[in-house]
């Protein structure tokens, strides 16, 4: 989704901003812009499309050491140059970028800006026009900035330039991520540390309702009421190789490949010196104190949550519900006496999940976030955090975060089981190790998966993924992976559900990927394969060593059946990757999608 960068220092601001925006490209966007300021005023460059298009229109000869930049994912108004950020007030003195959604923008427009001719359809323009109105009415820029922020309802991360104060960037944050980075004779602003990791690893976290006056030498944080806040910087723990593609053609392929290593890292991270599974006492107490777990998540994380439910119920005997975060508010279940809300989110920024967190906090219920990003909004705002240790996931299509989520949920459920004096009946550490090896075997079979992708999907407009039990959850994820990056219409189904309607869509050559890794239900899913086969479908059965049958196209190495999703999803990820590649799709940045979905 939208991204913000800002720089104030002694070097060429244009290049630092453009490179910063390139680092944010993975989040998804449809237009971009930068504004740089020098003694001669502010120069504005905006374009629809990619950062490469923006680079083409930036005037190389403009010299400036201060600037702000933005990638926009359209919410209010179509993606075009006019709606792209930065936005300016009518006098062009103020230039502003904004992430988030201003809920009362229409009211503010009608009540405060009736006589101002707006040029864009965005909620953002209201902010910059209001600030200008208050400055021209006699306030200082800082006062007008604070006054405007106090009037806004909704979420925002903001960076603003004032032509008359070219040595300052005005910054603010509320419910949208924003950081200030510190350097020698420069400071930066970024919605994600990754964007400015090129110049610094020292960042200061901003809290909701704070604004910051950033100059080359100084960073002054204050509340909207003027109280000064002092906060120590922290060192961003990013490994530069984690955020580079290296020799890989796409981040998605790199991240698929990283899954065995991520599983091994998780085994290490959640083991104590005695080789036993371990998480901090408070987190474990929170899980053990619950009489029911409510998992809240979206997309791929929701699919991981479905597997997590099986773990909490089968390993620990804790009743567990899984809810799509955007739907939770409409179907708020009757809660148990001692609920625990578990938020699963790779990014930790998903607005749909956050609104549930805000609501359940108001009701006084405990929360735990399982996320890949330490310090993310969901992590900061929930009572407990368990990290995925998957390393930055850049491709929009989530792969290694999914397997990491499943492994971590398995560990939490096993610990809960142990705390209740139960046993899960197998050695999870050992079996996760076996699953990591099996995952390695699967990522090494790329050529074969590419061939299958070609055979099954080259000419397809649609595809079906079916499974039963745990395999059903994986089929949902397989379908999501394929549709989001290749644009082939794909649906995941419980095998038994097909005959209740969807089988009508099966015709000659329709590809059906059938998961058959669970012995107890394997005969039934094979029955479904026969049913669709009789109607012309072309089926690819994905089974497991030990229960495979002749003709199965993919046989994953034997792993504990409860851990099969960690391995069976890999061929589906690879098949989707190659389908998208062969169709010439932008694998890492599929159309209309964003990595971090920060609007509801
Ligand atoms: O960051 P989150 O895990 O909260 O994101 C949730 C979904 O937006 C995400 O999983 C999405 O479905 C993926 N792009 C799918 O690959």
According to DSSP, the number of beta strands is 25
Uncertain regions spanning at least 5 consecutive residues: none
CATH class bucket of the largest domain: Alpha Beta
Q: What integer is the average pLDDT?
A: 94
Terminal residue distance? 12 Å
Total number of domains: 3
Give the amount of beta strand, in percent.
15-25%
**Which CATH architecture of the largest domain?**
4-Layer Sandwich
Name given to the CATH homologous superfamily of the largest domain = Aminohydrolase, N-terminal nucleophile (Ntn) domain
Radius of gyration: 25 Å
Tally the helices. 19
In the CATH scheme, what's the topology name of the largest domain? Glutamine Phosphoribosylpyrophosphate, subunit 1, domain 1
Q: What structural class should be given to the helix and strand makeup?
A: alpha/beta
* Ligand kinds: 5-amino-5-deoxy-1-O-phosphono-D-mannitol
Q: Assign an overall shape.
A: globular
Strand count, sense and barrel status of the largest sheet are: 8 strands, antiparallel
Widest sheet: strand ordering: 3-2-4-1-10-9-11-15
Helix content: 25-40%
Protein traits:
single chain, 600 residues, alpha/beta, Glutamine Phosphoribosylpyrophosphate, subunit 1, domain 1, Rossmann fold, 3 domains, 7-stranded antiparallel β-sheet, 19 helices, 25 strands, 36% helix, globular, binds 5-amino-5-deoxy-1-O-phosphono-D-mannitol, glutamine-fructose-6-phosphate transaminase (isomerizing) activity, repeat, SIS_dom
Summarize the structure.
Helix content is 36%, strand content 22%. The longest helix has 20 residues. It has 600 residues and is an alpha/beta fold.
């Amino acid at each position: 989704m939208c991204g913000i960068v800002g720089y104030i220092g002694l070097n060429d601001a244009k290049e630092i901003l453009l490179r910063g925006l390139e680092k944010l490209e993975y989040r998804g966007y449809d237009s971009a812009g930068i504004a740089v300021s020098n003694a001669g005023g502010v120069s504005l460059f905006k374009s629809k499309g990619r950062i490469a298009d923006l680079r083409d229109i930036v005037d190389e000869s403009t010299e400036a050491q201060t600037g702000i930049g933005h990638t926009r994912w359209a919410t209010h108004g179509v993606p075009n140059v006019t709606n792209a950020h930065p936005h300016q007030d009518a006098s062009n003195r103020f230039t502003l970028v904004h992430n988030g959604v201003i809920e009362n923008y229409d009211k503010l427009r009608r009540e405060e800006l009736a006589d101002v001719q707006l040029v864009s359809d965005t909620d953002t323009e209201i902010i910059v026009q209001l600030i200008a109105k208050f400055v021209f009415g006699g306030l200082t820029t800082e006062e007008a900035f604070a006054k405007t922020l106090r009037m806004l309802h909704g979420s925002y991360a903001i960076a603003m330039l004032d032509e008359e104060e070219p040595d300052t960037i005005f910054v603010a944050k509320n419910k949208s991520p924003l950081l200030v980075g510190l350097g020698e004779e420069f400071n930066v602003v970024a919605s994600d540390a990754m964007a400015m990791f090129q110049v610094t690893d020292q960042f200061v976290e901003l809290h909701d309702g704070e604004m910051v006056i950033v100059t080359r030498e100084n960073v002054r944080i204050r509340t909207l009421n003027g109280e000064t806040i002092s906060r120590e910087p922290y060192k961003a723990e990013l490994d530069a190789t984690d955020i580079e593609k290296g020799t890989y053609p796409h981040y998605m392929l790199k991240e698929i490949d990283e899954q065995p290593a991520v599983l091994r890292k998780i085994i290490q991270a959640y083991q104590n010196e005695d080789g036993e599974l371990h998480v901090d006492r408070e987190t474990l107490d929170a899980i053990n104190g619950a009489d029911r777990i409510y998992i809240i998540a979206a997309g791929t994380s929701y699919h991981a949550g479905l597997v997590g439910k099986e773990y909490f119920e089968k390993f620990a005997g804790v009743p567990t519900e899984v809810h799509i975060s955007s739907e939770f508010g409409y179907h708020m279940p009757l809660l148990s006496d001692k609920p625990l809300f578990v938020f699963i989110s790779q990014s930790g920024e998903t607005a749909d999940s956050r609104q549930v967190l805000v609501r359940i906090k108001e009701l006084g219920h405990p929360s735990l976030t399982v996320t890949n990003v330490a310090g993310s909004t969901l992590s900061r705002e929930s009572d407990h955090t368990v990290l995925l240790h998957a390393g930055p996931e850049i491709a929009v299509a989530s792969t290694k975060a999914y397997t990491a989520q499943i492994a971590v949920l398995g560990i939490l459920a096993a610990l809960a089981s142990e705390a209740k004096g139960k046993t899960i009946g197998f050695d999870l550490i050992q079996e996760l190790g076996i699953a990591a090896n099996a995952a390695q075997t699967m990522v090494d079979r790329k050529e074969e998966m590419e061939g299958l992708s070609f055979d099954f999907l080259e000419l397809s407009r649609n595809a079906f993924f079916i499974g039963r039990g745990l395999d059903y959850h994986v089929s949902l994820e397989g379908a999501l992976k394929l549709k989001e990056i290749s644009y082939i219409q794909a649906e995941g189904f419980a095998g038994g559900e097909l005959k209740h309607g969807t089988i009508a869509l099966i015709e000659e050559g329709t590809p059906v990927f059938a998961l058959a890794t669970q012995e107890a239900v394997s005969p039934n899913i094979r029955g479904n394969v026969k049913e669709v086969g009789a109607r012309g479908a072309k089926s690819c059965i994905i089974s497991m060593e030990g229960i495979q049958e002749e003709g199965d196209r993919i046989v994953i190495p034997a792993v504990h059946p409860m851990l099969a999703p960690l391995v069976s999803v890999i061929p589906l990820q690879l098949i989707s990757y190659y389908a998208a590649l062969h169709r010439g799709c932008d694998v890492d940045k599929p159309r209309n999608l964003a990595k971090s979905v920060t609007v509801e």
